[in-house]
Amino acid sequence: xxxxxxxxxxxxxxxxxxxxxxxxxxxxxACAPPEPTGGRPVAVPVTDAGGKHPNLVVIVSDDHRxxxxxxxxxxxxxxxxxxxxxxxxxGVVGENTFVTTALCSPSRGTFxxxxxxxxxxxxxxxxxxxxxxxxxxxxxxxxxxxxxxxGKWHMPGQLPDLRGVDTFITFTAEEGQGQYIDCPxxxxxxxxxxxxxxxxxxxxxxxxEWIHSRPPGKPYALWLAHKAVxxxxxxxxxxxxxxxxxxxxxxxxxxxxxxxxxxxxIWEGTLGDLKNLYRRYNETLLGLDDQIGRVIxxxxxxxxxxxxxxxxxxSWGEHVLTGKRWAYExxxxxxxxxxxxxxxxxxxTDALILNADxxxxxxxxxxxxxxxxxxxxxxxxxxxxxxxxxxxELMYEYFPDYPYHVPGLQAVRDDRWLYVEYDTGPEPQLFxxxxxxxxxNDLAAQNPEKVAEMARRLxxxxxxxxxxxxx
Length: 471
Prior knowledge:
CATH topology of the largest domain: Alkaline Phosphatase, subunit A
Low-confidence stretches: 1-48
CATH superfamily of the largest domain: Alkaline Phosphatase, subunit A
Oligomer: single chain
Strand order of the largest sheet: 7-6-5-4-8-1-9-12-2-13
Mean pLDDT: 89
Shape: globular
Structural class: alpha/beta
Helix content: 10-25%
Number of domains: 2
Largest sheet: 10 strands, mixed
Radius of gyration: 21 Å
CATH class of the largest domain: Alpha Beta
Strand content: 15-25%
Number of helices: 11
Number of strands: 18
């Protein structure tokens, strides 16, 4: 049965007449899908979805920390995310989910391809997407899926001829970051003004209208990528000022009001009083949760998998940092919820899950052969409660992107230790994340043997990733 909720709102803009008509005028342009004949066939039918191929819905937000959801035991006391909580109650929460690069463009490339940034090539926000990179959309379309990409693309270079999608809606404003209010959208190759819109709601409108236009009985795959909660933190009118009186004393003790003006933070674009920025971030998150509720109201979890996650986390004063990129927990750890056929409601897993695992998992759910170059692993058995672990360590990589004052770095993390090496600047760091979850005490100088061990493990992981192995 569908999750209970109100009926979908009617279209504000005549989606089918406007969007599909525009696509016809433009010939669908750079977004024309390939003929679904030369791809990988479906291997076996999907038994958990009653013998049908399940629908797939992936909602990806931007800069959403893993602990800023109200189902998390350490969430800020003023923050309520009832719809994400509801999705968690209907499915499984991945409590130990990380990105392999805590930065918009590389992480998004990894979600789509299942590869590390050093393999798919989008190493930072400056290096372009390689049009030859295969995404999970291609085998899905070849297997008979209707596929849509709606929302933030934000990878450098020209917008792609993204193979495997029949609807491609994105934005180019502010160098691909988009804007919260009245953001023009590129709809199947046609730039379209969107007056009187708030982007999180507008993208949700288009996503739901696309779902409603699907032919009966044909499976679909939807990628819904939000700008929220990226700066400039602008909540919808409904939530603007909602946390004006909130107690923001949960900010880290090492933070201070105008730390955003320091050398490490000034290029992040979050200039101003830290508490005011933090309040607006959380109000913007309330608006995101509100729109996620509309999606989960509208899908049937007996034949649809829904995944919610984020491209990276965000520091709010930890280590006197504002932003992402660094290998610390608040940047690399992200929320992850999955619900759908065969997933036990209200469950959790502490398996070590990566953003590189999303593409293999979606194809596993669809019973489609995996991408040959993917380095992640399907976590479908873990999410169904049939397997306890995926891996016991992960490698993190970050490549410098001008003008941000963050050195290139690599790290290895397991269930106790975080070890970080820098290309320039700081000496290697070692943290005991069990005894010191806020990673405040660098133990490298006191533990040379552990440093040497972790350095060997990192070098081994680096070689495996460079060879294109599954890790």
